[in-house]
Amino acid sequence: MIDFALANMSIGIQTIHEAEYPHATHEGQAALGFFDDTIRALRLSRSLQQSGHATAGFLKEIETEMTLYKNDLLADGSELDHTLADYLGIALQEVNVARYIEESHGVDHHATVHGYYANEGDTQ
Fold first, then answer.
1. Global pTM?
2. Which of 30, 55, 92, 95 has its CA 20 to 30 A from that of 1?
3. Per its UniProt entry, which superkingdom is the organism in (predicted)?
């Protein structure tokens, strides 16, 4: 799921670069920055999860930020903003599914993002 989210965020960045989007403007820089930062956060989440850490809380924070930015894009109303909101929306669905699966089926919850062993009450 995270890989599909990353792919959609990458397509969003490519769309920004290929469009006649004013890269030098505040909006252009903000869009590139948001998509780039979100990709980094998703990669970190994937890496932590692959190491056995619980990431549902972290994914929830990412979802919140993605939702807020998607709503901002939709409110701006340009065709490009709506296209970016579509890519962001697809990525958001994938992040939501990844979080749901982790919450429902779990990962190795002995280790968490904060380094706390929930079942043993000891820290790493």
1. 0.78
2. 30
3. Eukaryota
pLDDT band of residue 24 (cuts 50, 70, 90) is: low
Structure tokens, 48: 């932590």
Cα(58)–Cα(63) distance, rounded to whole angstroms? 9
Residue 77: left if φ>0, alpha if ψ -120 to 50, beta else—which one? left
Percent of the chain whose pLDDT exceeds 70: 79
Give the model's pLDDT for residue 107: 57
- Yes or no: say if 41 and 95 are a contact pair by the CB < 8 Å rule: no
Q: What are phi and psi of 111, to 5 degrees?
A: -115, 140
> In Å, how far are 37, 66, 70, 108, 121 from 13, measured between CA atoms?
11, 14, 14, 33, 43
